[in-house]
Amino acid sequence: MFRVLTLCVPMAALGLALIASPASAADKAMDPAKKAACIEACNSCLQACRECVTGCDCAMCETDCLTCIETCKACVALMQYESSLSPQMCGLCADACEACAKACLECADMPCCQKCAKACQRCVETCRAMAS
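Now predict its structure.
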């Protein structure tokens, strides 16, 4: 009987600790306006990156564009699910978009790269806002 009580006490204490703990940033509801702006920016960014990959002969930005496409898709999905991992994913997406914008700016003479860099820079702003 003593063993059963010793096991129950820590479980009960754990339950009280969970109830009393403050909500983390990830547990808070996402701001609907920020979320909508970020989803729209991510979708525009991944579209611009697709166009850049398929319409550009520049090998310098291809890997960054492909990484950006996949990161934006995952970011949109997690925000739509209202996942608690959304803020971290938005931070990662901002990093990927920042790298893509930098790579595309190095191909400044290519119109698709200019468009892609602009879309990526907008996505960086909205993702950073969601990540904070």
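The longest helix spans residues 32-55.
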